[in-house]
């Protein structure tokens, strides 16, 4: 960053946008956090509330407005504006309204922050990311989606819980759509370097067999629905996940994260945005890793791509 202060702009001061702002302040991600929302009273109140806690976090400023100029010269822009997901509603059903918002908002933000890395978080994130790339003309490394970073965290949590180990010791990814057709990569998952497929249960723990894996996959896929049913929205975990991606960019970490962008060069995947493990650094979403897949995983990933391709076609993408 050439020694200059960093700036994170967040579009949308709803449950997700404010969770990202909150976690970014606590983790000291950027010197300035800016909130943009069409509701002036709401964004003013959120900034005031967050400002009252600045004594307790690393040095930062929090600003907000309903004017796009608040995003000027941002290093990273996180887009969270979108239609709210209702109980029982799939992520893909949100597409039309959210694409319309993206088309209305992003071009103006791009004018004041042309060099920013753009992270799309709003759902359905894969389709919206593809639309945003078309709307803005930005390259896939500069504009990408949060993808299955949260899904992979959910997977790791459930595997850790089942096996009786710390979640930080589980290494596994969910790929494909951030949604119902996503694919856990069981064949490459490990715990402490031990392949999950060879894992010997700890005393008092159950085997990680096919039944357990299917149960965990089902819980990962339906996690958001369960949370929305209970409290109306998911916000804390996605706030942390998005903040982790922003950190990887601003700190030039070369962190491998399953973010969503066009998988150029991957047969059957190069016309849709979906998630694969990708090196994320100051240049954005860079090299996509060629993770070994079992035949079932490969078939599932191609099916996930086809699901997204059909949805994109509905909107002329």
Could you explain how this protein is built, in words?
- The chain has 317 residues and is an alpha/beta fold.
- The chain folds into two domains: 7-145, NAD(P)-binding Rossmann-like Domain (Rossmann fold), CATH 3.40.50; 149-314, L-2-Hydroxyisocaproate Dehydrogenase, Chain A, domain 2 (Alpha-Beta Complex), CATH 3.90.110.
- The chain is built from eight helices and 14 strands.
- The protein has helices at residues 15-27, 40-51, 95-112, 125-136, 149-163, 210-231, 236-250, 295-314; strands at residues 7-11, 32-36, 61-65, 76-79, 117-120, 143-145, 170-171, 174-175, 183-184, 190-191, 194-195, 255-262, 273-281, 284-288.
- The strands form four sheets. A six-stranded parallel sheet has the order 3-2-1-4-5-6, with helices on both faces.
- α4 links the parallel β5 (117-120) and β6 (143-145).
- α1 packs across α7 (236-250), α3 (95-112) crosses α4 and α5 (149-163) crosses α6.
- The radius of gyration is 19 Å and the shape is globular.
- 47% of the residues are buried.
